């Protein structure tokens, strides 16, 4: 049973404005719901369809019809489950200078952000700073694309100029004309800035890079997807640490 | 001016069945349309909105309203242009044994396929073989995600068991328990098999691998996106060739 008011409330969480006001967000599909249930995050509501009732009713889920699930879910097809979770308290995270930190400048696509979160989690890099105009971490598409990694990695949103002004670590960024990434094989704890696909790294941030790197292209493609570029940097850093 | 029949025809090309029957496909948005116009592929129809009429009318485009563009386009927002292009004649491609060939086993998501095409084009690898049950190269989402690279790289669809049976090159594949990718730094011309996210590499293909590799994880994420994994392999191969 789900009330009209609940449906309305859950649908409102598709918008950042209401997510921020309520400090709640949507988690959809089995993989992500299983991860949120297994995490320290608080799950406030849980809905499932008959298809997976055996698995989720014992976890306190409310069974709803597939038509109702389609109504509240943002996924094209969601035949299983949806949770409403509570955002962690703000200010519980901080940047540590003794490891690598990834910085995203104006990554607009929530799917790309989610894939980056998943990939950094894979490689064990858990420090992620986003410019204030990046996509929202709690956007349903970010959460979905993170494949559960949203429970282990939460970006901090900062004014990048101010953030970088306070940093003493080397600041690497991908830029045309930089040194080939694969030619650098020693990195002390550093910052790696990834720019948006359409605009690259903004000028004021570019001015704060201490080193420019590039991923060498060997064909005619104009650019790499930003999640792909981030993954290649993370893989390279890991293989240099071995 | 666009007729009702034309609208109907263009909409039919969203489906593989009609694309294959007509041997035509959709190309949407400025980047992809510019690439198809600059390529050897034949552009049969070209539509643009008033917004970009100055650029495309001289190339023979027909101007239509934004509402009409929204009607024929598969993109969420397309305020610019759409082309109908002719598929290249079948059988114009073949696998060459003197370079690396990438093989995709059951990659279902056309967006992932498009990103893989874009990434392989970036790294200059132009040999791509897909299992017959992979996503369609001419799916509008594949074409869009390829960011123009569909003009330079067209996968060949094969029965992978038969294809691999006829190969004498080493066959690498990503598999749990393989050797760490970064530890192998010499590759003769080889085949690299990437399995689907949900099912990995099918057993009959797994049995044909001569070497198993893995991308080492250092966190708790369960898997990497297949386009990300392909990109990391391509980057590593390139950096080993330097």
The structure class of chain A reads: alpha/beta
Helix content of chain A: 25-40%
Unreliable stretches of chain A (pLDDT < 50, length at least 5) are none
| Biggest β-sheet strands, sense, barrel of chain A | 6 strands, parallel
Approximately what portion of the residues of chain A adopt beta-strand conformation?
15-25%
Q: Let me know the CATH homologous superfamily of the largest domain in chain A.
A: SPOUT methyltransferase, trefoil knot domain
**Strand order within the widest sheet of chain A?**
7-6-5-9-8-10
How many beta-strand elements of chain A? Answer: 10
Gross morphology of chain A is elongated
Mean pLDDT of chain A: 94
**Oligomerization:** homodimer
* Largest interface pair: A-B, 37 and 37 residues
CATH architectural designation of the largest domain in chain A:
3-Layer(aba) Sandwich
Order of secondary-structure elements of chain A: HHEHEHEHEEHEHEHEEHEH
Structure description:
The structure is a homodimer of 242-residue chains. Chain A has 242 residues and is α/β, with parallel strands linked by helices. Chain A folds into two domains: 4-86, Ribosomal protein L30/S12 (60s Ribosomal Protein L30, Chain: A); 101-240, SPOUT methyltransferase, trefoil knot domain (Alpha/beta knot), CATH 3.40.1280. Chain A has helices at residues 4-12, 16-22, 30-38, 53-56, 66-72, 110-123, 140-145, 160-165, 203-206, 226-240, and strands at 24-28, 43-48, 62-63, 81-86, 101-105, 128-131, 156-158, 171-180, 191-195, 211-214. A six-stranded parallel β-sheet of chain A has the order 7-6-5-9-8-10. In chain A, helix 6 runs parallel beside helix 10 (226-240). The interface between A and B is large, with 37 and 37 residues.
